[in-house]
Each structure stands twice: as C-alpha cells, then as structure tokens.
Amino acid sequence: MDKIRASAVFSQRKRQKGMHSPNLSCSHEIKFNKVVIFIMQRKMGVTRRMFLMELARRKGFRVESELSDSVTHIVAENNSYPEVMDWLRGQAVGDSSRFELLDISWFTACMEAGRPVDSEMKYRLMEQSHSPPLNTPDSEAPSFVASKVSQYSCQRKTTLNNCNKKFTDAFEIMAENYEFKENEIFCLEFLRAASVLKFLPFPVTRMKDIQGLPCMGGRVRDVIEEIIEEGESSRAKEVLNDERYKSFKQFTSVFGVGVKTSEKWYRMGLRTLEELKADKTLKLSKMQKAGFLYYEDLVSCVSKAEADAVSLIVKNTVCTFLPDALVTITGGFRRGKKTGHDIDFLITNPGPREDDELLHKVVDLWKKQQFGRDLRRYATHEKKMILDNHALYDRKKRVFLKAGSEEEIFAHLGLDYVEPWERNA
Questions:
Q1: Against a cut of 0.85, is the pTM above it?
Q2: Interatomic CA distance for residues 61 and 75, integer angstroms
Q3: In terms of domains, do 112 and 16 share one?
Q4: Do 306 and 293 fall within a single domain?
Q5: CA-to-CA distance for 202 and 161, rounded, in angstroms?
Q6: In terms of domains, do 307 and 226 share one?
Q7: Final residue of a domain: which of 239, 262, 279?
Q8: What are the backbone angles phi and psi of residue 388, rounded to the nearest 5°?
Q9: Which residues pair with 347 in a beta bridge?
C-alpha cells in the first residue's frame, strides 16, 4: 500500500500525439532486454499504472512510460482489441503489427513467474470474427452482447440470481487465498471476474460464452476452462486442502483477527482455534478476547426475520431521542439476502435538529434495558414475582406490591440497590 500511496504523487504526463522518445530513467537492473513493455493507462488510472510499472521494473523488466519505437509489448486492462486499436490510431500509430497486444493477465503471469512468459493465444488481444453475438437460451431476448458489459459493477444490475455459482464459488476461494497471501492484484482479479459472471443472465457452458467480457484474464480463463471440461477446479480444491489456507480461514473468522495476526500465529506453529484457546501465552487485544468469548454468536447467521425485529428495536429507540429520524437497513439485507452475519443500519434525520450524541444515548439506553431484562428475569425465576413497566406482582400472595421508587422495588426483591451508573451490564 505504501508503494501505491507513493505512486500517487507522480503527476500524469499530458497525452501527446505521435510517437515519443523512450524514457531512459530507470534505477533498477534490466534483466530482460528483448521485452519492452508499455502499459496503457486507459481504464486503469494513474495510480495503478505507476504501481504496476514500478513492480515490473523491480523484477528486471524494461518498462517505458511513453509509447516509443522500442516498445515490443503493449499491455491493456479491460480493453478490447478494437478499443486498443482506436487508442493506437489516436497516437498516430500506422502499423500496429509490430506490437504484441496483450491482456493484463499476461503481465500478472510474468510477475508471478519473475520472467517473461510466452504470449500465448489466451493472453493476446485479437480481432474477433464477425460471428453473431453470444447466444443465450431461447427465453433470453434480446441476444446478449458481451461488448456492452461494463467493467464497473456500478454500471451493471446484478441480482441474487447467480447462474454461474460453480465458477464464482471457485473464484471466491482463489481470491480469499490470495488475500491471505496479501496479493491484492490476484485477489481483485478473481473478485472482479466473479462479479461479472454473477451479472450474466445465462450459465456459461463454453469458452466462447465469455469472449469479449471484461475482467476475464488468463488466470481466470484457465479456471473457467477446467470447470467446463472437468466439472470442478483442481486449483480451488487444492486451496481448500491447503493447511495454511485452512488455518487462516479459522483464525480470521474470529472477530478482531486479520491476516497479519493469522500469519504471526501460523508461524508460531498454531493451526486450529482449539490450539489458540489452549495457548495461555497469547496476548489478545480487547476485540480478540470478545471475538473468542462470543465466537459462536458472531459466526452464526442472522435471518431476515431477526433483522426486521432488530430494526424495529433500533427504530423505536432512536425515535425516543429524534422522533423524525429515519432508520434504514442497509448491506446484504437491503440487497435482498435472506441471511447475513450482521445487520447494518443508516440513521438519518430529515429535520434541522442534530444530535451528535445520538448513538451514545441509544447504546446507554440499551445497556439499562439489558439490566432491566435481567431484573425481570430474577423476579420471575427467583422470587416468583412479575415485574413489568407498570407494577410488581407477587404471584404467591396474589397482590400488587406498592413501590414509589426503584429502591423499594429492589427491596421487595431482596436485592441491594444498584445505582444507575452501576448498571452498564
């Protein structure tokens, strides 16, 4: 991330017409002279491009900041062959045949291998034949056009009806594994591909179905091809059986535990939650202690009915302080999911009145009501009495007990009086 932040300080060069002289300033040793890379900024952005250029240079690749006569390989991300050709024409390039036009997946394969890999067909951007657009089932009309699919999820309408779950499940496993390895580039590659396939209104059954779609890099296509041919992904299966992945999966399921802490524990030889709980030498943060203490509750799913019930409680409490406030469920339940791991709320006040202490007031009130619930439970189970908002009733004597204050209620229950500031249960 530091490299990404550092790259942001570089100013973007102005786009110029025609060919430019090569950028010779490079502080890294060049190991591969025969390959000269130019990374297109189109659809990528300045920061990401600078990060990728620096990454390649550190690995010994020659990378030009500007398009020059020495460039041999042009790398593009989420750009089709026609889009790259249009861009080249805008740069006054007459003969583009001298360049290898490659998808970003070739670049990431090179970075992973630490050397230039062959520019195989799966990496090349090529002119597509004038065949009909991708076919969809007869019920899907009009015909689906891959070139119309945006690379941005905010420009796609994606419902919970996922026709390609067998692919997206594998992608998400791969992405999570790369996240555990802190490899953001490969993690995002699979997450973006999963997002695109979730958008498709038909199941992918052949490689031609993904032709022209954005975010379909070589690594992604390899997984898709194997699932089409074999019915499952051996790579995803290998990840699920990997000891490190399984340990990180368990560790990060604990509230307050991230990849860094998981890495530390794994290097200490710990592998399971049971081993973590048994190790008395571990120094846990306050959040991690809470994560272990309430682990079962935190990992269990919340139903839509429970979310609606909690929403009602939140609304009633908030309106105690701000009657005009609006409480809206957001997150997964707003998107139509039936279950989730948490409930997200957005609280807004349409009126002129503001209350910076609203959340503190709400939480403080709930703390008192927790306490109140236990007081009623104690009355019922220990004293055979009924305590509610109106009265205290003795079921044995069948009489209402007079109480003009909280102190009297505590006295009837045989309890020492607990001051309000001592009720943060």
A1: no
A2: 13
A3: yes
A4: no
A5: 10
A6: no
A7: 239
A8: -135, -165
A9: 327
Q: Which residue has the tokens 């306490």?
A: 371
Phi, psi (degrees; rounded to nearest 5) at 302: -105, 130
Quick check: is 129 in a domain? no
Q: Under a CB-based contact definition with an 8 Å cutoff, are residues 37 and 71 in contact?
A: yes
Angle at 155 between CA 338 and CA 14, to 5 degrees: 140
**Is the sign of the CA dihedral 42, 45, 47, 48 positive or negative?**
negative
Neighbouring C-beta atoms of residue 38, cutoff 10 Å: 22
- 């996922």: which residue's tokens? 162
pLDDT tens track, the chain, 425 positions: 333 333 333 333 333 333 343 344 446 889 998 999 999 998 887 888 898 999 999 999 999 999 988 999 999 988 888 889 888 888 888 788 888 999 988 998 898 889 999 887 778 887 654 444 444 444 443 357 887 888 888 888 888 889 999 999 999 999 999 999 999 999 999 999 999 999 998 999 989 899 889 999 999 999 999 999 889 999 999 999 999 999 999 999 999 999 999 999 999 999 999 999 999 899 999 999 989 988 888 888 888 888 888 888 888 888 888 887 888 888 888 888 888 888 888 888 776 666 677 888 887 777 666 767 778 888 888 888 888 767 888 888 888 888 888 888 889 988 888 876 666 55
Q: Would you say the C-alpha torsion 350, 351, 354, 358 has a positive or negative sign?
A: negative
Write phi, then psi, for 339 (nearest 5 degrees): -135, 160
Residue 373: phi and psi, rounded to 5, are -65, -40
Indicate which CATH number applies to the domain containing 200. Answer: 1.10.150.110
**Bridge partners of 339?**
303
Domain containing residue 309: 302-355
Number of domains in the chain: 5
